[in-house]
Amino acid sequence: MRLKITQLLEDLKFTGMANALQAVLDAGIAQGHSFEEILWHLLSEEARYRQEKSLAYRIKQARLPWDWTLETFPFKRQPGVNASQIRSLAGLEFIKRAQNLVLIGPPGTGKTGLAISLARKAALNGSRARFYNAQDLLDELYASLADRTTSRLLNRLANYDLLVLDELGYLSIKPEQANAFFKLMEMRYSRKSTVITTNLLCAAAHNKFVVMMVDLRL
């Protein structure tokens, strides 16, 4: 009978319950659990399985290049980084308020690591995040112009809770790319959060989309 139940659960896509069935039933019988208690444990296993699967999917979709976290960030080796300021950002209130963030500093100051860490934190907390190298995003936008999928791409990118654009600096930008990029920023403005890392203070300072700025320069 257990095999039939397991097969039925798998057919119904209750994978978490199917995986836990044997252990939960054995423990329930041994400890004298009621039917309601056994059912609750099985449903709890299904909920846990779906949460873990959803988390794994969000992390995969974020396309984070490295497994960096704020807990492992070497603050002591980066004196230009205000640890308390960054940890306050880790509360992710700026995402709830749909605010934008610019991390400014020369190479080696930890801009990318901090941006990745914030994106991972957001994904762990249920937000849909996406990491892009800025040049890769511009190239993807340009390619979408050729096959006329720009609107579809912009709509998809506009709906991420957090979009990270890494190394927005001295890039080779065609007018069509610039138009599509600023259209994307306009679509996200006041709706979703964008994190930009750059070494160009002036460009960031005059960007009307910037709400918060973190200067990592020594």
Structural notes for this entry:
The protein is an alpha/beta fold and about 220 residues long. It has two domains: about 1-60, no CATH class; about 75-215, Rossmann fold (3-Layer(aba) Sandwich), CATH 3.40.50. It contains ten helices and five strands. Strands 2-3-4-1-5 form a five-stranded parallel sheet. Helix 9 links the parallel strand 3 and strand 4. The longest helix has 28 residues, at about 35-60. It is elongated and about 65 Å long. The model is unreliable at about 200-205 (pLDDT under 50).
Q: Tally the beta strands.
A: 5
Mean pLDDT: 87
Shape designation: elongated
Q: Which CATH class of the largest domain applies here? A: Alpha Beta
Q: What is the CATH third-level topology name of the largest domain?
A: Rossmann fold
Strand order of the largest sheet: 2-3-4-1-5
What Rg is obtained from the alpha carbons, in whole angstroms? 22 Å
Helix content: 55-70%
Tally of structural domains: 2
The CATH homologous superfamily of the largest domain is called P-loop containing nucleotide triphosphate hydrolases
The helix-and-strand class reads alpha/beta
In whole angstroms, the N-to-C terminal distance is: 68 Å
Largest β-sheet summary = 5 strands, parallel
Q: DSSP strand (E) fraction?
A: 5-15%
Order of helices and strands: HHHHHEHEHHEHEHE
